[in-house]
Design brief:
about 190 residues; Trefoil (Acidic Fibroblast Growth Factor, subunit A); 7-stranded antiparallel barrel; 3-stranded antiparallel sheet; 13 strands; globular; binds 2-acetamido-2-deoxy-beta-D-glucopyranose; signal
């Protein structure tokens, strides 16, 4: 992008001092996300498809407040890059950086919502932990024992907070009021082999 003649001296000195980092061939992202992601197979953004993402607006799995643990939501691309996810040992994780990964937990939401399972990012695994996450081609699935599955369907639902949250159910159902159906996708090469 830059030719050396255009690099001011101060920037040149800075680049020289971080030369080791710049030498990593996968260094691409603003903050190194790409180089981190490339170390773990299958790391990617998760894109929502269906009525939630019509009108040419791409939406991704995200947090209400970027960088803060809490409910999972679906958000359009904004200035903050959407978070990265991957599946390891049948658990879905959000990758923060080299040292921090957080589990996407499944909370029992039967006490307050028609749909029985809500996605919440936690510090450790909790809630319903006997299910498994998997990719089938590009699509994300959550299976429970006894042959139950969300069949790849997720729901974006507006709660009383006025914010969208993500739910699912092992019993196929029409979207309850305030909810829209969607599927979730990862388009990295590694997952396509499954
Ligand atoms: C990684 O992210 C965690 C959680 O946000 C933070 O506490 C930690 O300082 C970060 N580590 C690095 C190496 O950036
Ligand atoms: C969720 O909680 C309800 C009520 O406590 C319980 O009947 C149901 O089995 C729970 N669902 C799961 C998947 O654990
Ligand atoms: C997060 O989910 C809880 C229920 O699990 C809900 O009470 C709360 O309002 C949600 N937060 C937002 C910002 O919607």
């Amino acid at each position: 992008m830059y030719t050396s003649i255009h690099i001011p001296l101060s920037l040149f000195l800075l680049i020289s001092s971080v030369g080791v980092i710049l030498a990593v061939p996968t260094w691409e992202g603003m903050n190194g996300r790409s180089s981190i992601g490339s170390l773990i197979p299958g790391v990617s953004h998760i894109q929502a498809m269906g009525p939630v993402a019509t009108g040419g607006m791409m939406k991704h799995l995200a947090l209400h407040r970027p960088g803060e643990l809490g409910n999972i939501t679906v958000a359009p691309l904004n200035r903050v890059a959407p978070p990265l996810f991957y599946i390891n040992q049948e658990q879905l994780w959000l990758l923060v950086n080299e040292t921090a990964v957080y589990p996407v937990n499944v909370h029992n939401s039967t006490s307050f919502h028609e749909l029985p399972m809500q996605l919440v990012l936690g510090k450790k695994r909790e809630g319903i932990t006997n299910g498994i996450w998997r990719w089938k081609a590009t699509m994300l699935y959550y299976d429970l024992p006894g042959g139950k599955s969300n069949t790849g369907l997720f729901y974006q639902c507006m709660l009383e907070s006025g914010a969208y949250n993500v739910f699912m159910t092992p019993i196929a159902s029409r979207p309850p009021s305030g909810c829209q159906i969607m599927t979730l996708h990862s388009f990295v090469r590694n997952n396509l082999k499954n």
